[in-house]
Every structure is written in C-alpha cells, then in structure tokens.
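It is worth pausing here to work through a concrete case rather than discussing structure prediction in the abstract. The textbook approach is simple: state the sequence, then state the predicted structure, then interpret. We follow exactly that order.
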Amino acid sequence: MQLKHSRNSSALALKLLAGIPLAVFSMSMGGCTRASDAQSSTPATAATSAVAQPVELKLQRVVMLMRHGVRPPTKQQVTPAGTNPSPWPQWDVDFGELTGHGRDAVRLLGQWDRINWAARGLLPATGCPANGDVEVAASAKSRTQATARALVEGMAPDCGINVAFPADKRDDVEFHPLDTRAVAIDADAALKAVQALMPAGGMAAEVQAQAPLFALLNQAMGCTPAAACDISKMPAGLEHKDGDRPGVGNPFGVASTASQTFLLEYLEGKPMKDVAWGHLTREQVSILLKFHALKFRYEGHAPYVAARAATPLAARMLAAVEHGAKLTVLVGHDTNIADLGGMLDLHWQVPSYPSDDPPPGGAIGFEVLADPSGAQFVRAFYRSQTMDQVRELQKLDAGNPASYQYIPIPGCAERCPLADFEKIVKDKLVPVLRRPVLP
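Step two, the predicted structure:
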C-alpha cells in the first residue's frame, strides 16, 4: 500500500519541511494537570493527580504518537551467546510481530480512547466518526500497522477507518528519517553532542554509577558477578556510526535489550517462571527498565541528534495540530517517542515504569483547545496502560482508567497559545532531504 496522508495535514507538513529553519518543542517534567473543559472535556478517568483548569476551554483536536503493542524479541538470541542461563522463552508469533495478547491490549486501549474523546466532545459516543475526523498512519513495520488496526477496532469498529503506511521501508522517511537518509546528520557532531551527556569518566563511570542495576541484571541472567556472563564487564563506550546517531554501545545496549525482553515477557502474560527464567519479581522487572530509559537518554536526548531524528514526525504533528483531523494517531516505535521527547525536553512517568520510558501502546500527544473567543491553546500529554493492565488485559473504565497525564511545555505558559507553540516547533526543526509521498 502506498503511503496515504490526509491532504490537509500532510501538505502543511511538507510546507514546514520545505526550507524554513525547522525544529521542535522544548518541554520539561512537571506536575500533571487536568482539563475541565466545556462539554465534559476532562479526560475520562485520568489516572494522575491534577490541577483543575477553567471550564471555558473546548477540545478541538488531538494529535498523538503511539508505540506499537507487545511483541516478541526481534531476534532469537537476545543477548550475546553465553550470557543467558537457558534458552530464551518461545513465542507464538514471529520475531518482532505484534502478539495476539498485544492486539487485545491495544484494542482495550482503543475502547478507552473512544470513551475519553467522546466524553470530551471530540468524537461521537456511538456510531462511526464522520468521514475525515480520524486519521491513522503507521510505520513500514508490520507490528505498527497491526497495532494501528487493533486501536481502530477498539475505538471505532466496523467504521472502515483506513490505516496508511509506506509501501516500502526505504520510503519510511517520517518514522525512520536517519535510516532513509531523509535528514542529514554529521556523525562526528552527533558523537560530540552525545559525549556531552556523559559523566566525568565517560561511559565507564556510567557503568559504575549503575552498579546496583547491573547486579540485578546478573541476578536475572543467573550470572555470578565478574564471570564471563557478566554484561557489565563488557568494554564501555559510545559507538560512532557513519551517517547515523551514535549508539549507546555495550554494555548498556545489551542491558536495555535484555530488560525490555523481560518486560515483554511479563506483559504477554507468560508465567513468572518464564519471565527472566523466574529470577525476577514484577517490581524488579520494572526497576531494570531504567536501562531502557538510559539508552534513550544517550541516543535521543542530545538536542543535535533529537532534532534530526524527530523533525519529519514533529512537522507532521504540528501540521495536524494546526489544521488536521479531529483525531490524528501516528503509530511507530519507542525510538520515535524518545526522539520527540528529547527534541522537546519532554518528560513523563507512567505508573509502574521508570521516568521517560515509553511503554508498549503508550502515546505522547497534544491537545488543541479553544476558549469562547476562539483563541487556541496547546497542551501536551502522555497516555498509556500500566504493566498489569496489559498483562491481565484489564478493562479500562472510570474505576480502572488508563494513565493520562499532562506535561508542561517549557518556554510556554500552561495555556500555551497556538502561535507560541508553532514558533517553538518551527524554530527547532531542521531541513529534510526526502519528503513523504502524497497520493
């Protein structure tokens, strides 16, 4: 299938990418706030503490970037040979594909989204949304496309909402701009930018600082410290990559992959004996996810890198914020969310996850609201299920809501005027070399 976009939002995105100095938003961690907007526009059963807002704001549009649902590892041997005590558990789908359990969890999330948006007047409570009110697109990876379809099944079943995606991974310039050479990046400049994030003493010092995490990882891997299986003994250092961002390198890349695999085993509902070979509790699985967030801190939070990795999606999201469908959902990967968060200096924490870790099915997004005079404002949010809501396929409702937290936009007021938001974004985007193909 050829990549299909809403003509309005995509054309605007292409204008943003055409030549002006483009970039993205800066946002920092802050307390959660809750809208109390007209037409019952408080997020239905928002799961975080909140500060009430004036009631005159009406929700007009929502744009969000979502991670795919639960999948198996992307390869058979998750960590280097000799580091795992037993073979990694088997899965019932191919490597990297959305599982049936993952599909069910996303479908439940779609049902909650529909209740939430209907309660706030964005979508009708029953029946199908009007033609063009919902736009959904995914990356070239089949797991993101399956996730997008599952979300639509939950949110608007039998409504014929199309999921657009690139026909070929070589054309996936929005979700994989560095791989497709859609944005130029100087590998030396990128490495220097990431090195600035390291502590004194470099990545070896980072290994020492994370000694308790590595001790817990050794427990999970059934490894005696300092033995050949001890991942922390791998030479530490960033990886310089021509035409790409630096990699976090060993041992953190391996530790991140292992910890994410333990999470996926837990979310899939595998017996605890098959989650890290029975060596971890659910709380310890959560603790080890700090490796995942740390990987993204180095690979996606340096401003030079984040701007180049996130610009195409950020431009598309801005276009949708300005003149898009009532609801725009872009389904990609944890890397996309981490890059956008790094570009915006945006921080979040889903219950049961470390700070800034993008859970499967979670989404970062923006609400567009208007006051009675027609003045428009933007608010950022993060929406996700908790670990146990996914593992147990819990129904999401008023008594058991999804997590929905508001996040301040640095450099802008709590009610961020749309014009100010536009300037923050446009000042940070960078030029692109390849653009999405419109139908």
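Step three, interpretation. Residues 1-12, 18-54 have pLDDT under 50 and may be disordered. The chain has two domains: 7-183+303-426, 187-300.
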